[in-house]
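Page 42, continued from yesterday. The earlier attempt failed because a stray header line got pasted into the input along with the sequence. Redoing it now with the clean sequence only.
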Amino acid sequence: MTDMKSTECPVLCLGEALIDVIKRAGNVEEKVGGSVFNVACGIASLGHSTSLASWWGEDERGKSLEEKLASAGVSVVPGSSKAAKTPIANAQIDDNGQATYSFELEWQVPPLPKASSLSHLHTGSFAATLTPGASAVIKAVKAMSAGGTVSYDPNVRPSLMGSPEEVRPRIEELISLADLVKASDEDIAWLYGKDTPIETVLHKWKDLGPGLIVATRGPWASYALCANDRDMLAVDPLNIKVKDTVGAGDSFMAGLISGLLDAGLLGSAEAKQRLRQARLSDIQGALHRATITSGITVSKVGAYGPTQAEVAEILAADPTL
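This time it went through. Structure tokens are written below.
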């Protein structure tokens, strides 16, 4: 089931694009990245018309971002390259492949296309909370939620967001406006305390209004909770050798958005209502696509957006996924 609007109008990803300076065992490597940038590339690689509104510089690093976007098939919202310089995320990779981050950046929002010209808006991470751009993000989310669909990933960055107490009201406001929310277990622990059960937080967020909430849990099963279903679904990750976790959550998000768009559960006002009436069986295919895309990503170094063909190959090898 697919709406005309979701096939004709692009998905807009609104948020950061930056350079990941990856430090691992004494080696330093630069790769294009950023949570929302990665999601945009992932959605486009899975066959959806996608644009990105962001904030980078007209420098060599900015050119590398633009080259990657072009190769992935992502269009750029005009004005996105007006920053003084391209942002940097310093990613320190430990022996287990886990990444910790520090940042050098500023965040503003270029002029955005009208919500009526879009099928879906995705945003998240510090773009939704860091001034001065955050006020433009919340304005865009409100406009889009009135006639289309919105997805949101808090993707917390403590070094940029302040304390949990400071940022939690804004995050919960965005959750209340979103149709789809995805967060990691680490995000939830930082926001509500490590002793607060994930299930408690998901039910709290469900009461705020989204149609679907998903919590990823690294090597453990992801949890999914529908607005119209009392039960929670657990989806196991792929059994795959992990090279690093850079971009894994973003790849999961891209796969999930793609799957829900193809199922007619995102992309229009009608899809918004269908998502709120959906049961876990209706969203299981999208969750499996997300699991596959993130599994492919962690099998490679750095953020990587799998293609439709790669996902199909995994499914062909194991139709039970």
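Notes: Confidence is low (pLDDT under 50) at residues 1-7.
Reminder to self: strip header lines before submitting.
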